[in-house]
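Thread title: Can someone regenerate the structure for this chain?

I was given the following input by a collaborator and told the matching structure tokens would be attached. They weren't. Posting the sequence so someone can regenerate them.
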Amino acid sequence: MNIHYTVTTEKSFEEALNALKKSLKERSFGVLWELDFEETLKGKGLDFEGNMKILEVCNPKQAKEILEINMESGIFLPCKMAVYEDKGSVIIGLIKPSELMNVFDDSKLSEIALTIEEGLMAAMDQAK
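Best answer:
Regenerated them for you:
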């Protein structure tokens, strides 16, 4: 089993990014932070050509549930998703929350993480 999930889209980079944000919102996930790698690296004096944005996303209700079970699990929050271009394709990807939460060996955490993962994957599938 892969620790990550990716989809490839025929949409432009900006169209895919906007579609992902919209489908996340429909599933009660908010984008807490967005990192533009090209802009950030250029601001540090490094040449980088390419579209790559990292989104940190969260469903507050589910995050609260996870933290109430195990505060240490907060090291994996919020969920990270990437939208990037590679070899002419636009790709949307994430690290599976279920794989991360499995390190705690807690069935309740694993169950919540799987629910989150299913929502994030559905948002990605809709956005493509």
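The chain has a mean pLDDT of 95.
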